Amino acid sequence: MSLKKYFAWVALIFCATNLVSADTIQLKDQSAVTGKILAEKSDVIVVDVGYTVLVVPRSAISGISKTRHAPTQTTSFASPLLDVIPQFYYGDALAAPARDVSSLVKQIGEAVVQVRTPEGLGSGFFINADGYLITNFHVIEGETEISVEVYHQTDGQLDRETYKQVKIIAINKFHDLALLKIEDKNVPKFKFVTLGNSDALSVGDSVFAIGSPLGLERTVTSGILSTKTRELEGELYLQTTAQINPGNSGGPLFNLAGEVVGVTNMKIMFGEGLGFAIPVELVKNFLDHRDAFAYSTDNPNNPYRYLEPPSRTKLKTDEK
User: Fold this and answer.
1) Which residues are part of the catalytic machinery?
2) Is residue 50 domain-resident?
């Protein structure tokens, strides 16, 4: 089947699904592919056409038309362009323009929270309006009594509210991630952030963090991305000059579009400007497969459940 016929057939099948909105990739052979653009690389475009995902070479593309989705006040906070279908977490379909840190902090500050346990504190951030938030696993490791402090903005003023009914939903100790949910009664819809793309970052790009270093809530630090692939103990981290201190753990690292590109989780002691963050792609993978990492009170410190070894006595009995 020729490339033209193949793409025309795909476009025809996709149109029959009657999706509400979609992006259109116009091909040089006058045919088109209609679907949702998942990723844009230097040499290819990855598009979801409903029943499968296509990788379209840029050399075959003559133009791209993207559908812009205007959010409602109740579903969007950090970004003006969100996916139209309600999701567990949100990311921009198009790259948002860069803005100054001051205006971004005013817009997204409510979505950053302080996570407290009897043994210490850390930071976190909401990923949707229903009270689901991300923090580091080491912030809540071994803890079941967790509270979250949220700063709600009312008439230009920030009011602190503490929520104490916090449930652990999923944990991934290997990537130092935890998913929590506020389950207090009569809670409002929470402001939340969007998840960006750390793969699109370049070394030297400006970034900033919001968190509670040493318990100093709502502290903003800024810097640049020092490297995207710093290997520490077999894992790759984003390294940044934005100051990271105890209490920042679990907080967001933002780009200048106000999108989360990493989760701050550690620094090198006795050094300045040596902070590290978990790339947001690992966060997305954790959230997409959260059922596989579901927290269980039977196995609270590990996302995996191991089978007990067979008993020698039982084996001998079975052999008989």
Assistant:
1) 138, 176, 249
2) yes
Reported pTM = 0.68
The number of folded domains in the chain is 2
Give the angle subtended at the CA of 114 by the CAs of 138 and 188, to the nearest 5°: 125
> pLDDT tens across 76-126, in order?
344 433 333 457 998 865 667 888 999 999 889 899 999 999 988 999 999
User: Which residue range is the domain that position 39 belongs to?
Assistant: 3-65
Chain position carrying tokens 């020698």: 312
User: Which portions of the chain are predicted below pLDDT 70?
Assistant: 1-21, 50-51, 67-86, 92-95, 298-320
Q: What is the CATH number of the domain that holds 209?
A: 2.40.10.10
